[in-house]
Amino acid sequence: MTKRILVFRQISDEQLSALKQDFSVDYLPDTASVEDPAFLDALAHAHGLVGSSLAITPALLDRAPHLETIASISVGYDNYPVDELTRRGILLCNTPDVLTETTADTGFLLIMCTARRAIELAQLIKEGNWTESIGSDLYGSDVHGKTLGMVGMGRIGAAVARRGALGFGMKILYTKASPKPELEREFGAKRREFDQLLAEADIVCVTVPLSAETEKLFGAREFAQMKPGACFINIARGKVVDEAAMIEALGDGTLHAAGLDVFEHEPLAADSPLPQMNNVVALPHIGSATHETRTAMAQRAVDNIRLALRGERPISPVNEEVLKG
Ligand code: DGY
Question: Has this prediction a pTM greater than 0.85?
Fold first, then answer.
């Protein structure tokens, strides 16, 4: 029997053709919601799913009685009920490694733009308001030589830190449950308790995955502990931050500035004050959004689903237990 897969995000023509050699494919790249009738129809027959950015709930899984494997086109998997998938014997795969450097580039883009006020100052020109040399009220802060505090030192965190240490001569601090001696050797990273890192860093950059432990890790208390003038950068997940507390801290000056690629609700609500704040650089979740990297991520998902549905080991399984069962 030919297995059926539902692809609900855009992949290349070559990738789609490759899938069609092995499977019957429902291709719905513009699916905006899990309530979309075409999505639900295809889901009812699907042995595999390929896509990203939809919240897959247990109730939705009830509508997918044949589902064997989900190949997410993302490294993060906080929008999947992993324990429930495992309980049902459904394999989840993700796309680590291929997006590490691009996402770290985005982290550094935000660090530079936020510290040097690049977007705000570019706007001055766009609006025709560059009529005299800018005054010290519009100066930014140096990045080189400063202290970068990494909250999370996985693959992406290490790639951001490496850019800071080797490219910008920054001192690197990090929080992590387990020490990273190889990074301490490579570029002198130093492990700190969370509160100590907040007190010492000029730039705090968050790369932790979203989990029950990291949800709202940053709130009023944490922003108050940061150094005056320090910048906060989030390329992890919006829910790692208490967004209302962050907005308040940015508004009253407790938090000097923020560079944000992720938000509590995405897309950002039209009435969010964040885009209007001069001390905020906001990007529409573009961490991995380059042609090269998104193609590589889709390819990883295609490889994962082909291997898994053929009964072979995929490249990057999340819930390994399913393979053993
Ligand atoms: C990821 O891969 O998790 C990125 O954040 C895009 O969703």
Answer: yes
In this predicted structure, what is the pLDDT of residue 39?
A: 98
Task: Name the residue among 195, 193, 200 with its Cα closest to residue 179.
Answer: 193
Question: Residue 135: its pLDDT value, please?
Answer: 97
Report all structural domains of the chain as residue ranges with CATH numbers, in order of start. Answer: 4-98+291-324 (3.40.50.720), 100-282 (3.40.50.720)
User: If you take atom 6 of ligand 1, which residue's CA is the nearest one?
Assistant: 74
Q: Is the CB of 75 under 6 A from ligand 1?
A: yes
- Ligand 1 midpoint to CA 181 (Å): 27
288 ligand 1 Cβ < 6 A: yes
Pairwise CA distance, residues 63 & 60, whole Å? 5
Spans of the chain below 70 pLDDT: none
Residue 104 phi, psi dihedral angles, 5° rounding: -65, -35
Rg (CA), the chain: 22
Query: Does 287 sit in the ligand 1 pocket, CB within 6 Å?
Result: yes
Instruction: Look up 132 and say whether it is catalytic.
Output: no
Q: Is 266 a catalytic residue?
A: yes
The pLDDT of residue 177: 84
pLDDT at 325: 77
